[in-house]
Prior knowledge:
By secondary structure, the protein is mainly alpha-helical. About 80% of the residues lie in helices and about 0% in strands.
Amino acid sequence: VVMALANLIYACFSFSLVRRPTRPRSQLKLLAGANIAWGAVCLGLLATGPSGVGIALLVFEAIFVAGLGLLEARSLDLLATR
């Protein structure tokens, strides 16, 4: 449930940024930082002893989300419209 809520909040926030005519750097930095942090949380959740499918899901999500956060952080100038 926590992961689903985190993904829903992320989706709402990132969608709101896409729809805005301007995308402030501060909000993009927040998004990138949150993605990197969520990747770390996913790796931390591996310590809870998930099943094989759970392990695969957490590792995939950690790599994908943290990688996305790093790309966002490196591309702030291209993404910001202000």
